[in-house]
Specification:
Blueprint lengths: L5 E8 L9 E6 L8 H9 L3 H8 L9 E5 L8 E6 L8 H17 L4 E4 L11 H16 L16 E8 L2 H29 L7 H13 L4 E6 L1 H7 L2 H7 L7 E7 L4 H4 L4 E5 L1 E5 L19 H16 L5 E10 L11 E3 L5 E3 L7 H14 L4 E6 L3 H7 L4 E5 L2 H14 L3 E3 L4 H5 L8 E2 L7 H10 L6 E6 L5 E2 L9 E2 L4 H12 L4
Parallel strand pairs: 1-6, 2-4, 2-5, 5-6, 9-11, 9-14, 10-11, 13-17, 14-18, 15-16
Antiparallel strand pairs: 3-4, 7-8, 8-11, 12-13, 15-18, 19-20
Length: 513
């Protein structure tokens, strides 16, 4: 299989006008009345080309817009890409991240080898330089990403790598950019790793092969360990939810337990935080079969678990001084002679019984076992992430994920991480009124509620398995994929949640960008 594009990131102190590069990238604001100092200097060297573009209205500097001007013997760059930053008063770190992503995407399309980013100069000190460095690195990884492992044709193929550098003429500013670039590279590459594993089809990634990938990852990282429970061990432990969902498939279910144990005092206390991710490697709906249309997208129903896997990668590589569990219940939900059925009553790991009314509400069935496992490990905080409900997609569209939970402080911490990471979330309810809908007459619970508020009732179901732990649930349905390419990314998996969860954990430990 072909390797994904290798993004090499660095900083360089150099005069922007003299910088020798294949593509120099600068930003412009749509509401700016005149060119800033850097763009004004470049405009003079380019014989007024930038000014002409803006005056003619051919480049309006709107968010996502870009235009390429070819260099001359007065500047070092072979090309200059103008990237729109939108309105200056609305500029955030995500403005920078998207601008870097758009520049990287365009550069890959043009088969550019080296890209030099000078986006920060347009901001005039409005944002923290290390944070800008991190956002640029994350954006460059995101925009350059392509999933083409199985494309064998070489004609008009893309390059195997992209060199991206953040440049400034002042060594002090370059140093600050580098501070953020280092962590941004780790996070950006972890997100690309997530996108690749999530994009792989179900005949390549199934519970056992996902477990093998987790073990391989852990072998390469000192602070990360991996234990995998197979079907026999799941049976012994009584993890009935995971076993039920995986019963119809030839691929037996697995429960992957990753553990980050940092050195020193932080590691001696043991993990207090658990990240739990749903990894249904393919979701046919089981006996309650899904419609055929777009069923191929159900290979992405493992996204929550993959996001946890990639976040654990980032946590270990960043060396965060906090113990973290990464818990990934994995099964393939298929119809078959041994499949669990509507009407079945399943005894979960917690001992609670669940009446199955729809086998396509399978994510909550595997998550409840993993959540109770986290409780038994005495985790004080539990965050689960899952492509859980179509209802969340109906409620929020493809613009943000749903956030539910039982602790106001945890909710606020995740909202803050959302602002910083650019991965948008929206707080939704999951209280007692929704939990009442999940009560069964013949078991403790049933696995679906009424027609309305499906994202909220699903979260209320999960809430029954977290005990006294602080808990948050991220329903990322609708955020797991781009159905078509955007200005900032190719189509396919987004890896949504890696930046969000890593940022949350960095904030918790006081780790700077």
């Amino acid at each position: 299989m072909k390797e994904i594009i290798d993004v090499k990131l660095k900083t360089r102190t150099v005069d922007v006008g003299k910088c020798k590069t294949d593509m120099l990238v600068v930003g412009l604001f749509s509401d700016a009345k005149r060119l800033d100092k850097l763009n004004k200097a470049l405009d003079r060297k380019l014989d007024g080309a930038i000014g002409n573009l803006t005056k003619l209205g051919d480049f309006k500097a709107k968010d996502g817009a870009s235009s390429v001007i070819y260099g001359n013997d007065k500047i070092g760059a072979r090309r200059v890409m103008l990237v729109g930053l939108g309105e200056k008063k609305k500029a955030t770190l995500d403005t920078v991240r998207k601008a870097a992503a758009g520049a990287a995407k365009k550069s890959v399309e043009m088969k550019v080898k080296t890209v030099s980013l000078a986006l920060h100069t347009a901001l005039g000190g409005r944002l923290d330089l290390p944070a800008i460095g991190r956002a640029c690195a994350e954006g460059a990884c995101f925009g350059s990403y392509r999933y083409d492992e199985f494309v064998t044709e070489s004609e008009n193929g893309r390059l195997g790598s992209l060199k991206v550098e953040l440049i400034d003429s002042e060594p002090a500013r370059t140093k600050k950019l580098k501070e953020g670039l280092s962590s941004g590279a780790v996070i950006g590459q972890a997100q690309s790793y997530a996108r690749t594993i999530a994009n792989r089809p179900a005949n390549v990634i199934y519970p056992a092969s996902l477990a093998a990938a987790a073990k391989k990852l852990a072998r390469g990282l000192k602070t990360l360990s991996c234990t995998v429970l197979d079907e026999k061990q799941l049976t012994t432990k009584g993890m009935g939810g995971i076993l039920a969902v995986g019963s119809g498939s030839q691929h037996e279910p697995r429960f992957i337990v990753l553990k980050h144990t940092p050195a020193g005092k932080a590691g001696s206390a043991g993990p207090k935080i658990a990240l739990v991710g749903k990894a249904i490697t393919f979701d046919s709906g089981g006996i309650s079969l899904k419609p055929a249309t777009n069923m191929d997208e159900m290979k992405l129903d493992k996204t929550g678990g993959i996001v946890v896997l990639a976040t654990m990668k980032a946590v270990a590589e960043l060396g965060l001084p906090i113990g973290v569990y990464g818990l990934i219940p994995s099964a393939e939900n298929m119809p078959g002679g041994a499949s669990y059925r509507p009407g079945d009553i399943i005894t979960t790991f917690s001992g609670k019984t669940v009446e199955v009314q729809n086998t396509d509400a399978e994510g909550r069935m595997i998550l409840c076992d993993a959540l109770d496992y986290a409780v038994k490990q005495k985790c004080e905080t539990i965050i689960d992430v899952a492509t859980l409900t179509g209802a969340c997609l109906v409620a929020l569209g493809r613009y943000m994920a749903g956030l539910m939970g039982n602790d106001d402080k945890l909710i606020k911490q995740l909202q803050e991480a959302s602002e910083q990471s650019g991965e948008k979330i929206w707080h939704m309810p999951s209280g007692d009124e929704y939990a009442k809908e999940m009560k069964s007459k013949i078991a403790d619970l049933k696995n679906i509620g009424s027609k309305w508020g499906g994202a909220c009732t699903a979260a209320a179901f999960l809430r029954q398995f977290v005990g006294d732990a602080k808990w948050a649930h991220l329903d990322i349905a609708g955020m797991d994929m781009f159905q078509k390419a955007t200005e900032f990314s190719a189509e396919g998996s987004t890896g949504f949640g890696v930046r969000l969860l890593t940022t949350y954990l960095m904030n918790l430990t006081g780790t700077k960008a």
